[in-house]
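Cast an eye over this sequence plus tokens and explain the fold to me:
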Amino acid sequence: MHDPGSLNSIAFRYARWLRDTGQWDAMDLFTSVIHPAVGWLASRGQASIMDISPSIIRRTVLVARRDGLDPELAIGAWNDFWTYLDSDGVPHRPLPPDLLASIA
């Protein structure tokens, strides 16, 4: 079992919440945008929400765009995840304010 405060545990709780509330479009975005970042960090032994850096977020948005996803939807996925973190009381870094401009 994961540590309840670990990145994996938080991501699983978020995915379960999306599923339980029937937010299937958001779940698709989570699967395409956020889950790969969590897996990448976990494979490198980085298990904290604080390990999600602005550069990792930018990279996921760029990959999503390369894969045909609207970058604004990818950014929206991160915004929704950050909102969940806030509601769950999980401390995290702020999202980069210029995220869309930085990938244009």
Helices lie at 7-20, 24-43, 54-66, 71-87, 99-103. The radius of gyration is 13 Å. The chain is about 65% helix and 0% strand.
